[in-house]
Specification:
The strands form 2 sheets. Strands 3-4-5-6-7-8-9-10-11-12-13-14 form a 12-stranded antiparallel β-barrel. A two-stranded antiparallel ribbon has the order 1-2. About 7% of the residues have low confidence. It is built from 2 helices and 14 strands, in the order αβββββββββββββαβ. It folds into 2 domains: 40 residues, no CATH class; 215 residues, monomeric porin ompg (Porin). The longest helix is centred in the N-terminal third of the chain and has 30 residues. With 289 residues, the protein is mostly beta strands.
Length: 289
């Protein structure tokens, strides 16, 4: 009797353990994406759909903004030179002035550039010399843009105006040691070829007091007499301007500018009653926005 009772208890314990192990296995399989079914007493493992756990504080990805908006367009304008140059002697005008403005609209890779440069200077070449350029600029490589477009130049001398259009191709950027440079090749409607190269460099004396050095030269293949331009080296210009940045975007300045013509250009200047070599005191404003 006791033997039969012991045997029955052993069978009961074995059944309980078997049921516990089966339940644990089913739970583990369910957590890993499996389901357990029974058909005729034999367990059948079924693959259940995978459940993705999304944290409560994370929104679906389709509502997220782009991490970088590199298609945004901006407008930038730099008035690098806007100055008055008082008469220093001779027959020069007492109200000479000069400007050099450039800017662009676009993004990181494609930009529409606009540039304007002009002066009134009765002691040197024309009474008025106005230059405007409209260019397409494309990012070429680090710090450099290639530019192509058109240029319109107008000069006035003794109540006589002359105007010409030119095609432009150039490169603009920053060379080592933070020299900003601009080089352009021009071809006018008659096939006359000329070029311009300019460099500027800022030297920080203090956080607000800055000395800018400026160099520019023009060369021409052909002589264009109505624009007081001879073949070869036309001129060299050196300038220094000391500015004080009241605001980073606004700075008055004073400085000196030396401009000298050479060769056939100097001869044409003398024929017009001008001086091929000048040193001018300047006072002006530099700003950007």
């Amino acid at each position: 009797m006791s033997s039969a009772l012991s045997k029955g208890c052993g069978v009961l314990v074995a059944c309980v353990l078997s049921a516990g192990i089966g339940s644990t296995t089913a739970s583990a399989e369910a957590e890993h994406g499996y389901g357990v079914a029974h058909s005729g007493g034999a367990p059948i493992v079924e693959v259940l759909p995978e459940r993705v756990q999304i944290p409560a504080n994370v929104t679906p990805q389709h509502d997220w903004p782009h991490p970088v908006n590199d298609q945004e367009h901006h407008l930038f304008t730099l008035v690098d030179v806007l100055e008055y140059r008082p008469r220093t002697g001779g027959n020069g005008s007492s109200s000479d002035y000069r400007w050099d403005i450039e800017g662009w609209y676009g993004g990181d890779y494609n930009r529409l550039w606009f540039k304007s440069e002009g002066q009134q200077d009765t002691a040197f070449k024309a009474d008025y010399d106005v230059d405007f350029q409209l260019l397409y600029g494309r990012f070429l490589w680090k710090h450099y843009d290639i530019q192509i477009g058109g240029r319109m130049e107008t000069q006035s001398f003794r109540n006589h105006n002359v105007t010409r259009g030119l095609g432009v191709i150039g490169i603009q950027g920053i060379v080592p040691y933070n020299y900003e440079f601009e080089s352009s090749l021009f071809i006018d409607q008659r096939g006359a070829v000329s070029a311009r190269l300019s460099y500027t460099k800022d030297f920080l004396l203090t956080q607000r007091l800055i000395l800018q050095g400026r160099f520019q030269t023009n060369v021409s293949i052909q002589q264009v007499e109505e624009f007081t331009t001879g073949s070869g080296l036309n001129n060299l210009e050196f300038g220094v301007r000391l500015r004080y940045e009241i605001h980073r975007k606004f700075a008055p300045y004073i400085g000196l500018s030396l401009d000298r013509s050479f060769g056939e250009t100097a001869r044409l200047v003398r024929q017009q009653g001008g001086d091929p070599s000048q040193i001018r005191f300047v006072v002006g404003l530099r700003m950007w926005f």
